[in-house]
Amino acid sequence: MKPAPFKYHDPRSVQDLVGLLASLENTKLLAGGQSLGPMLNFRYVMPDHLIDLNRIPELAYIRVESDTLEIGATTRQRTLERSAELRRACPIMVEALHSVGHIATRNRGTIGGSLSHLDPAAELPGVCALHDATLTASGPQGTRRIAMAEWGMSFMTPNLAPDEVLTGISLKTWREPHGHAFVELARRYGCRLQTGGSDQWGNIVSGIDLGRRIADVDLFGLTCPLITTASGAKMGKTAAGAVWLNADRLSPYQYWQFWRNTEDADVARFLKLFTILPMDEIRRLEKLAGSEINEAKKVLANEATALLHGREAADQAAVLSHLHNTEDSPQDKLTARGWLGIHELLLRMRAQIIKLAQSRFQ
Are strands 134-139 and 193-197 parallel, antiparallel or unpaired? Predict the structure, then answer.
């Protein structure tokens, strides 16, 4: 099939565009055309006027200003995907774009087109909702700023009047450090179960509901009690920030110190949860009281660090901690420095032996 007859318009500025919207009825806006093209061909939509936005340069831009990211509505998805500025300011959007259609469609598709089409399975509206985006709409009555939470009016129906056009998107960037990931597990990998801490129950249930509405699939959630300290703080959080498992983000020594600073009331419980020590040894350690409980804390730090970073890293962290402890005597610190030197020498000898053995057997 071919589109029903329409009149074509190609304004060169937002002012010209708004003027057309004010004077014409039954219009459709053409940005990338990846969704509109098939809809025209199948006569699912039959406008009297088609307004092409592609010759309005002021609608295509990426600007990062302090803690705000500004994107023009006709910015190509492929441009966003390859933007170094966007990768720094909003890396999760770049990850999400890898899942949008394929390269050919991203070369033409625009962020404004995706938001205006508002397909419930689209990735970009979800990212904008995640960042609490604010959308700018322009029309004969002026400019409106619309919160992303108020953008969707009903199924595939954005909060736009017939004579309005989406012109820009504003997102608040996240403070560093932060983590991010965008993975469509159910759709692409057939994943049906999501697990998490009990504080994530609302997010998990929302994902289950969304999956059932969009794809009519049965999804499931499983939560476990959130681990907190005796004082009620969430486990894995410190005054300095998150406790990273990656040694590039948090050194083995800092990780060791995190466990060494465990509250007295938590030591026995954490020995059971985060080490693989025999229960007889844990029962012995949990009987320690007063200053002797520091022995149990050091054991906890050693074992937890060894499980993540290896025994050598845990031993080095323990020696470094001994060196930094102001309560130790000068003689103790001298002994610790000597032990650390011997330990480093043994590590170098071990590396040379392995290298020699490898060369002999090649």
Answer: unpaired
DSSP state of 206: H
* Alpha carbons 135 and 144: distance in angstroms, whole number: 8
Query: What letter does residue 3 receive in the DSSP assignment?
Result: P
Please give the C-alpha separations between residue 273 and each of 72, 178, 278, 310, in angstroms, as whole numbers: 50, 26, 12, 18
Tell me the pLDDT tens digit for each residue of 210-242: 778 777 888 999 998 888 888 888 777 655 567
Burial of 73 (0-12, 13-18, 19+ CB in 10 A): buried
Look at residues 40, 81, 93, 32 and name the one whose alpha carbon lies nearest to residue 59.
Answer: 32
DSSP 136: E
Residue matched to tokens 């949860």:
273
Is pLDDT of 127 > 90? yes
What's at 190, amino acid-wise?
G
Q: What are phi and psi of 74, to 5 degrees?
A: -95, 15
Compute the average pLDDT of residues 312-335. 67
Count the neighbouring beta carbons within 10 Å of the beta carbon of residue 355: 10
Max CA distance (Å), the chain: 93
Statement: residue 349 has pLDDT above 80: no
pTM above 0.70, yes or no: no
Cα angle value 291/295/299 (rounded, 5°): 155
